[in-house]
Amino acid sequence: MPLRDHFHTPLRDRRHWEGFHSDWASSILRYLNPHLPPRYFAEPRTHLGAQVEVDVATFEEERLVAREPEGGNGVATAVWAPPKPTQTFLTDLPAQDTFEVRVYDEQRGARLVAAVELVSPTNKDRSQHRRAFVLKCAGYLVQGVALVVVDVVTERHQNLHTDLLQILELTDAAPRPEVPLYTVASRTTKENDRWRLDTWYEGLTLGRPLPTMPLWLASDLVVPLDLEASYEETCRVLRIS
User: Fold this and answer.
1) Which of 222, 87, 207, 204 lies closest to 149 in space, CA to CA?
2) What is the pLDDT of residues 114-142, one digit of tens each?
3) Residue 152 lies in a domain
4) Is the CB of residue 206 less than 8 Å from the CB of residue 2?
5) Residue 22 domain-assigned?
6) pTM of structure
7) Helix, strand, coil abundance in the chain, percent, nearest 5
8) DSSP of 36-74
């Protein structure tokens, strides 16, 4: 079945891409868990947008003065007050959409071994958002976490895989065509005391099926990630023709 354009009319007017991405992550999870060896398990991780509220306790001004401990015994301890900051900046911290499936190895303390990232429009809309996304991906690879990135966002054309190679300073990497839609699997392995990055890159085309990608759980263990099966299951559940 063909890849649809979820970000332009007519489909954009009939279905929300956020709902599709969330359910696609769940479909990938449902596909992966039965195919993983018994010691591995997958979990979804989804988060939308910038508005994150942190519940921080507020202390009254009177609490910043010295107090005697309860009971009246002992010596009052003054609360240390830090100096004023040397510099203060107004900044727009990059808020990341996350549509992700993580795979863990429970025999190694539920250690993260692989991740599947579904790119959202927000991941590509501004330079700081793109940088935050590729730094996250680079952090996974540096820690030996295998990665599959899937980008079906048609409304923005930046290629985040190219940005990732630049962040990793792989200037000798063979250039890839700047196709807007793609999926890429990556893993890091050690060879003769040197780290090696292996990638499997596939361009995606509207109207054509999605490929099956390798998802590495260890240096000698890989499972197939059938993107087409999970994608079509999502379309079926959401009644997208």
Assistant:
1) 204
2) 999 999 999 998 888 999 999 999 999 99
3) yes
4) yes
5) yes
6) 0.81
7) 30, 30, 45
8) S-TTEEEEEEEE-SS----------GGGGS-BPPTTS-S
